[in-house]
Amino acid sequence: MWGLNSVFLFLLLNFLTINNPGTTIWEEEFNTPGIGFWGDSDGITIHSHLPPTTEWQLDAEACSFTSEKDYVKTVGTSGGRLEALDCDGEAVWQSPWISIASYTAVNCELIAKETGSGNNPERKYVEAFYQLDQGEKKLFENNGLSQGNWGESVVSQSQLQGDSIRLIIHLNSSYASDKVIVDAIRVWSDEPEKVDPNQLAETGDLLINEVLSNPFDEGVDFVELYNQSSKEIRLDHLFIANRDDQQNLKTIVQLSSEPILFPPNTYLAVSENQEQVLNFYSTTCVSCFLDVTKMPALNNSSGEVVLLNDSMQVLDEMHYTEKMHHPLLIEEEGISLERISFEESALEPSNWTSGKNGHQLASPGFENAMSANSPVKTTTFQLEPKAFSPNEDGYNDLLQINYQLDKVGYLANLRIFDSNGLPINHLLRNEPAAIQGQWIWDGKQANGSRSPIGLYIVLLELHHPDGSAKQFKKVCTLTDRIY
């Protein structure tokens, strides 16, 4: 008897097989209108819109646009298509170079249409070519040239092989009542892709490393992965999902439709909008982020995150609840759950704790502040430099308060006292401390005023949920130039 998961996967694979014959390598449906060239009512001005995000190129230099009704551009008709109307010259559309090295037999297809009564084959046509591996361009073998009153034709080429291919289409319409149309360009293969097995993930290669399920307002959820293998792993063969109340997989999301490689020993933060993540958390690795069209729903209070390969094999999984945050936290909003150890299972609740990286409450795209993968055996507390001068001259303007802890989970209180023992600033109040890190004092008092020259005491108090406590006291000198 099949379980619900098996039935779901069977139906999913059956649906994909019926509706997607072959493996699509590249396609263009022209579903963004208004890209191209068009004229103006003054008979002289030529307008154009070719956004840098458009993969393909369009050259209309040989065309003439003497009216606002003359154009070569994408339109919204029938869901989107590329049209030429009374352009009085040949326009050339050109795809990007498309990698086909992973396929043994590649096919290309597009739809060429025309409307109107014009029947001049030299002034009304669609001519389609392909170019393999920087070689000469060749006419499509089936309906490569459609001209005059042809109505509609399917233009195709089959059984191509090489490293890369580019499609080139010439189109012309020189009558005010005639259009030529190109639509539904597709490159595909009947054979499955040849994938290097060293680029496919197996259990143990990738780990779930950080999860934000309760973002700030205007923020978004994210899931961070870590590649602890020596492989460059293909993201288009990876999926993340959640589970329903019966623990069946649901909302299975492919990480990428492109063969992007996930390098070894690196981090990757997956979200619906990396900019909405970076509005709240900074990073030194902008390339360590990936946007997906839709994330599995991550409820604030509890849920599951499942990492899968394309065989639907579970590579890693974690179940989270609000109770996994630090017990002394008052508010969990905007604070991620960070994995403590790569060696321990992600399913072990004690292997997760509240994120904290300086003033940030998460560390997307880089090593967890709470990581214990390289544990420190002793606790250290150092001030650098011993004498600092916060006069904004660019030299020793800040006091760096560096620390290393023997375990994760401490809450920190950090206070500054003057030489008479009077408190002047309370820098930290019961904030989670990373396994190692740094705090900064800019020499200012709690009211924002600059502290006078003199000796100051830095007092650090650490409290752990297991009942242990530590206290450190260091002296620094606040100085300035002597004129």
TrEMBL record:
Q: Which Gene3D superfamilies match?
A: 2.60.40.4070
Where is the LTD domain positioned along the sequence? 194-322
| PROSITE patterns in the record | LTD
Quote the InterPro entries the UniProt record gives: Lamin_tail_dom, Lamin_tail_dom_sf
Instruction: Please report the name of this protein according to its UniProt entry.
Output: C-terminal domain of CHU protein family protein
Protein species of origin: Sunxiuqinia elliptica
